[in-house]
Amino acid sequence: MLNRQSLTIKPCNHNELTPTKIQHDYVFTRWMGSWEHRFSLWSNRSYSDALLAYIGKIYGQQANIYHYFNRLWNESLYNTIDELDVLNILIERLSKIPGTKASLRKRQETSRIDSRFDELKSIFDKNYNTRFKISTKFNSNELINKESINSYFDLGCGNGLITARIGNYFNINKEYIFGGDVFNSNNQQITYVSIDQNQSIIHLNDRSVNLITCLVTLHHIENIDNILKELARIIQPNGYLIIREHDCKLERSILTKYLHFIHAIMIIGHIGEFSYDYLLNKNEKLTWTEQKKKIIKYTKSIQYKTCQEWQNKLELVGFDLLAIFDYDLNKTTNPQRLFYALYKRNDKIN
User: Fold this and answer.
1) Average pLDDT, whole number, for the chain?
2) Domain spans of the chain?
3) Separation in Å, CA 72 to CA 33, 77, 306
4) Which residues form the Methyltransferase type domain (predicted)?
5) pLDDT tens sequence across 66-108
6) Is the model more confident about 263 or about 274?
7) What pTM, to 2 d.p., does this model score?
8) Judging by DSSP bridges, how do beta strands 338-345 and 235-246 pair with one another?
9) CATH of range 1-350; options 3.40.640.10, 3.10.129.10, 2.40.50.100, 3.40.50.150
10) DSSP annotation of 183
């Protein structure tokens, strides 16, 4: 996906000290690897459990993940390795277990897509069984009118599989199912749209679509204000925008570090958009030191924002909030503090 970078869930008490703003210099690198109690991810039971559960799920090792981690944890007591080193060693060991690569492929090709589509379907269809709760007051008649959708753009479409699935749900012809990213996945089910990140330009005409999705994409975009203006430009009046994001401040907190480690897992394991990067450069054998620098550089660029901060920015360019979809914690967990928000383009011209 794009070189990236509400659930209005109240944070649990994870015994964190008051977060401090990240200074994007050597302090960031030290913080990412730090075992210091207030910064240590692996020493924080709630977040380490969440991270191990995530790793176990995608590698199909839910039953064995603690066995491998506990062995590594004991080894780390006698070695001068940092927290990112532990993550890398754990993933390397899991990758050698028969069946783990097949589990990763299944997640990328089916499981993740099915899960995301089911979530989006609950926004499109208010009668659909869902694990969401709606945390804002809204008129149910303002939820998306399926019959009104005949053109669709997915910002940060990656391989385009989710994009095609959504477009097909609305019975949209391929010519009007647009997927935008910094690379072309050559998915024949969608129409690829190039994204000029340096100039913050989306190569679509004004008012050319009436539905846009940005699924954990916006926090990866450096020139976010310009891209949001582009989204407002290409969408028709009364068109819908759906975002999926983390409700997270850009702070040096355990939550932020946890989210950075989720991205590190994807880089180390060549998952998602990083699988495409891996295929392009598969003959390039990076040492762990080189890959670690890549992780640091990438995660430093991520610009997390709270649900309210996203709302403030989107309202400035002409989007009105209709509803925020929270994960129902009685049905699922949400350590990444993910949420969906549904917006509607007003008729003001910016």
Assistant:
1) 86
2) 1-350
3) 16, 9, 35
4) 154-243
5) 999 999 998 877 677 999 999 999 999 999 999 998 888 887 7
6) 263
7) 0.87
8) antiparallel
9) 3.40.50.150
10) S
